[in-house]
Every structure is written in structure tokens, then in C-alpha cells.
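INPUT
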Amino acid sequence: MVEFSVNHFDNDIVEVKINGRLDIQGVGSIETAFTVQAAGQKSKVIVDLSGVDFMSSIGIRLLVTASKAQLSRGGSLVLLSPQPLVREIIVVSGIDMLIPIYDTFDDASKHAVAM
Amino acid sequence: MSSEITKCSADSDKLKESPCLFLNNNLDELVLLNQWLETDISQLFEKSDKILFKIDLVLTELLSNIVNYGYLDKTKSEIFIRCCVFQDAIQFEIEDYGIEFNPLSAPEHIFPQTLEQAKVGGLGLHLVRNYVDKCSYVREQKKNIFTIVFFR
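OUTPUT
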């Protein structure tokens, strides 16, 4: 079971908070709606991963696809507060070198706007 | 990673063997894998143990790979997983009747230098290689048998 919520802030900042497992079933259940919110239009997207307790490669794909879409639109996407084991998967995948990770919303929003 | 791995059924040091799991080669069946891990396997460890996360990740990636790429004609087939617990390790044997494929022979994952170059194909097996402590592959009786070991 996975779900997400969306909050809009000034400066085109959109926070998308995901809760649950980003595995095949989880990604399948939110992929379309998540992509609309995180990649449907140019924004400064902060994906809050603090509520994600499991992520497989398909979860990485979800984040990379949305990030690439934002890049192509002139927007940006950053990650916020992944749990340690999820962060490790992101690092082992090498995605942390491509999509910045921040530990606080303030840092994430500052850098998302600056990108 | 070593290929010197003892089969579950032949090892005298084995402490106990947990139930086996049969899955159809359908991605929807991965829900059953999660249930099996949460019920039968998780009781072998402390709840917070990192090893459970690693097992979940590796089995999810391996089974996804088998289902997605192992059956070009979409023939219905079964995948069998056997778990056995040793004093210092937990071992899983995954058997499938898909096309011959040795996960250890897959090309190394190439880390993209830019987001534009980023592709996630092959990432699953990259994670498998990084999260298992030992693994081995054999092709026997038209089955792929992949054995993975996690040290406790």
C-alpha cells in the first residue's frame, strides 16, 4: 500500500510526500498520478521520501523519470529525507550523484529554487 | 562472491528450514512474496534487522527479472523459492523454468554521468550483486537455480 500527498508553496515549489513501499505494486498504484504531479508541468519539485520504508529499482526508475521530465521542462526535482536503508539504495544506484538529497525542507526548497 | 555454496538439502549444519514458496510467473504474485517474508521469514530476525530489508530487495529484484524476461512466450509456469537458515547465514534457492539466464553473467551496471544519460535497465541486478553476500547459479533439468546467501 502506497499513497502520496501534494502541497504547493511559493516559488513554484511542489512537495510530493510518498508513504509506503515503492515496489512494483506500489509504483504501479501511483505512477500515473505521481507523474502528473511531479512531472506534468515545470515546477521545483521536492519528493519527500521520509515515509517510504522500501524501494526497489522500479522506485528508482519512477524518481529518475520524473526528474528527467522536470529537467527537460526547465524545472527541478530533489529528494527529501529518505530513510537510511532507502538512501543506501539510492546511493548504491548512483542516483544521488544525479538527483540531490537533502535532510530538511528548508535546504531542499532553497536548492530546488536555485537549480 | 563465491560460488562455493552448499545446497540447502545437503547441509548438516542447517538449523531449520522455513516453508517454501511457490509463485506463478506473474508480477501480481509478488504480493505473496511480501506476505511470506512478513510472516514466515521475518520471525527469524529482529524486526529492525537490516537483513530483512536486503532479502526483500534482492528477492523482489530477482523475481521481477524472472517474470519480466524469463518467459518470452508468456507460458504459465511456477517459480520455487526455498529458504534455509544456518548458524551464521540465511540462504534462498530460487528455481524457475524460464529461459536460461545466469544473473551473474549480466553486464556490469554503468553509472550515468548525467541525468539525461540515466537508464535504469540492469539496475535490479546491480542491486542484487551489491546486497547479497554470496551467490551462485546452475542450470539443471531445464531449470535456472540461483542461490543467494546473506550473512547474519
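end of record. Helices of chain B lie at 30-41, 50-69, 123-131.
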